[in-house]
Amino acid sequence: MRRIPMIIGLLVVLGLSSCNSKKETHEDQTKFLVTSPIKKDTSIIKDYVAQIHSIRHIELRALEKGYLKEIHVDEGQFVKKGQKMFNIMPNVYQADLQKAEAEAKIAEIELNNTQLLADGNVVSANELAMAKATLEKAKAEVALAQTHLGFTDVRAPFDGIMDHLHVREGSLLDEGELLTTLSDNSEMWVYFNVPEAEYLDYIMSKDRGDKKTVGLLLANNKQFNQKGIVQTIEGEFNNETGNIAFRATFPNPDGILRHGETGSILMTIPFKDAIIIPQKATFEILDKKYVFVIDENNVVQQTEITVAAELPHLFVVSKGVSLKDKILLDGIRMVKNKEKIKTEFAEPNEVISKLAVYAE
Q1: How far, in Å, are 150, 191, 195, 230, 243 from residue 198 at the CA level?
Q2: Which residues contact 321 (CB under 8 A, 6 or more apart)?
Q3: Directed axis angle between helix 91-119 and helix 125-150, to 10°?
Q4: Which CATH number does the domain 32-42+273-358 belong to among 3.20.20.70, 3.40.50.720, 2.40.420.20, 3.40.50.2020?
Q5: Quick one: fold of 46-55+184-272?
Q6: What pTM, to 2 d.p., does this model score?
């Protein structure tokens, strides 16, 4: 009877020993794939919300008070410089011009008579000078009346596309009343806001004197067929947003862009000698990014990194890891900090090539 418990105990011990052996064998066979950061020249494309403006966009207003007699153009029409657009009833101004011309004629006759008298020493030189001044004043009144009459014809100051009409024929206009707006769309100014840190990077870069070329993504998610050039930066930051406005100029030969459109500026930002790691090697804790660095004893060390830019499947890292480090690539959820593991190294170039990412 004593032999039976002894046999059972021996079997239990052998069974536990067998399980432990299998567990140790499994652990011995588990290897985690690791790689190293790689240094490459690459670039990213950043997009900024943009507002599109005509290079010239003005309001056309009535310069004189009166009835709108004729409208010679239509909404959305392309007009040429000097083309007549509106005609304000000119009757009063024509009468003023005729009156001024008559007074100028009278002044001229009086000057001629005074000149004859002055030649015969009948009148003084002062009276002759007064007659000349009266004629000059009358001529000035004629010029003023002609100017007012000219204001009754509203003409296009430049080639452009007019907007909708704010008045109709027969309307009684006040001086300065809005008639329409006119846009010169031959070139477009595109404004976009840049954060302070990116502005400093741009303004302190070695090529800051070169004209930066940018693209434009339209609202239909298609890229505009012309490239723009960043030409100016506004003088002040917006205290509420911390941004500063840049302005890029785009040619618009096909007239695709119109005043008031929106889009996104696409700016290529180069990174020279960038340290790159796969995104899959990272994890987040409270909005901070980390990787597992494997030390010389194959012990896992949780390390915080600073991401400078994001590429498809890759991060450009500015702080946290070096080219000499080995980082855990797979099995991030299976290991713990300070744990010793077995590893298998994968060449960085091979890892990146399998991620199908653009990197120069």
Answers
A1: 52, 16, 5, 14, 9
A2: 37, 275, 277, 291, 293, 303, 305, 327
A3: 160
A4: 2.40.420.20
A5: Elongation Factor Tu (Ef-tu); domain 3 (2.40.30)
A6: 0.68
Helix (H) or strand (E) holding 129: helix 125-150
For 64-175, CATH gives 1.10.287.470
Domain boundaries, the chain: 32-42+273-358, 46-55+184-272, 64-175
C-alpha 304 chain-centroid distance: 33
**By the 8 A CB rule, do 160 and 79 touch?**
yes
CB 180 within 8 A of CB 162: yes
Contact (CB, 8 A) for 50 and 192: yes
pLDDT tens per residue, range 214-256: 999 999 999 999 999 999 999 899 988 899 999 999 999 999 9
Output Rg (C-alpha) for the chain, integer angstroms: 41
Residue 305, number of CB atoms within 10 A of its CB:
22
254 to 174, 224, 328: CA distances (angstroms): 37, 11, 53
Beta strands per DSSP E along 62-162: 66-71, 78-79, 84-88, 153-155, 160-162
Residue 113: its pLDDT value, please?
84
Which H or E run includes 104?
helix 91-119
CA 77/CA 100 separation, integer angstroms? 38
Q: Which of 359, 351, 315, 356 is nearest to 36 (CA)?
A: 351
